[in-house]
């Protein structure tokens, strides 16, 4: 049985809730990542993802100096170092997330577990199965399209 502590990434970059969206985007670009934990010191408060920035800032035409506390996801699912990786991957599939913060008993961030970690260092088959579940539905919901959605296909007509 593989534990989260064996596969997780330690030394994770964090930001504070008062940091700006622009700083988060710059950090994501420089580190080539899509999510950053938001912490008060070491205590996990939330996560900000590239998707959060697009949907809660760009799409709503908010300024880039908007604080992360206004746009971060606050209901963050997390796991602990001693958890079984297979169990955590099942939870990731159920929550449809590709990464999960790892916290200690005081909810202090100690690392991150991603599908990439599990594929590279653990069970690639289980990682693939989990990604398949997370990716459902595989096509976008086009039922409530606005003009911004544009035509489907290869581009504009």
UniProtKB/TrEMBL annotation:
It comes from the Bacteria. The keyword Repeat applies. InterPro entries: CBS_dom (IPR000644), CBS_dom_sf (IPR046342), CBS_domain-containing (IPR051462). Signal peptide: none annotated. Residues 8-66, 72-130 form the CBS domain. Residues 134-157 are annotated as: Disordered. Pfam families: CBS. SMART domains: CBS. Keywords: CBS domain, Repeat. PANTHER family: CBS DOMAIN-CONTAINING PROTEIN CBSX2, CHLOROPLASTIC (PTHR48108), CBS DOMAIN-CONTAINING PROTEIN YHCV (PTHR48108:SF34). This is Hypoxic response protein 1. It comes from Variovorax paradoxus. The lineage of its organism: Bacteria, Pseudomonadati, Pseudomonadota, Betaproteobacteria, Burkholderiales. The gene is hrp11.
């Amino acid at each position: 049985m593989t534990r989260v502590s064996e596969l997780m990434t330690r030394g994770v970059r964090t930001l504070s809730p008062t940091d700006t969206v622009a700083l988060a985007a710059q950090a994501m670009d420089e580190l080539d990542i899509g999510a950053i934990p938001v912490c008060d010191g070491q205590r996990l408060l939330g996560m900000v993802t590239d998707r959060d920035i697009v949907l809660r800032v760009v799409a709503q035409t908010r300024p880039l100096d908007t604080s992360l506390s206004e746009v971060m996801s606050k209901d963050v699912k997390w796991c602990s170092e001693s958890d079984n990786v297979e169990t955590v991957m099942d939870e990731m599939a159920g929550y449809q997330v590709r990464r999960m913060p790892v916290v200690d008993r005081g909810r202090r961030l100690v690392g991150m577990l991603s599908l990439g970690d599990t594929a590279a260092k653990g069970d690639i088959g289980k990682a693939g199965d989990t990604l398949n579940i997370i990716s459902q539905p595989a096509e976008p919901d086009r039922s409530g399209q606005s003009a911004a959605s544009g035509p489907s296909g290869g581009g504009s007509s």
